[in-house]
Amino acid sequence: MRKSKKEEAYQESDWEQQEEKPSRTQKKKAAENLQKLGEFLVDMAETEVNRLDISSELKKALSIARTLTKHGARKRQLQYIGVIMREVDITSLTSIMEKMSHLNKS
Question: Which tens digits make up the pLDDT trace of 37-92?
Fold first, then answer.
């Protein structure tokens, strides 16, 4: 049985939409990567973080995370940092951090 043109168009557009949307796994991995990047920022010296072009909210969250010693509290704070970092331009931040890590190795 042949499908109508409407059905074919609907199936094609539905397929295209599925390809464009990130999968649940991709979303989780992106969130984990942001959290790891946030953890890297927490471990950086505060003077280096202050030189970065990031929001004051993120700087405040990073300074709070440095003071936390309990594992659960630190983990929640890192998750919060990951949420804040969704709004930050990650490409520029990543390139700046790579330059800083190369300078620290030299």
Answer: 888 889 988 888 888 888 899 999 999 999 999 999 999 999 999 899 888 877 87
Are the beta carbons of 59 and 12 closer than 8 angstroms?
Answer: no
**26-105 classified as CATH 1.10.60.30:** yes
Give the integer Cα–Cα distance in Å for 37 and 87.
Answer: 14
HEC profile for 24-93?
HHHHHHHHHHHHHHHHHHHHCCHHHHHHCCCCHHHHHHHHHHHHCCCHHHHHHHHHHHHHHHCCCCHHHH
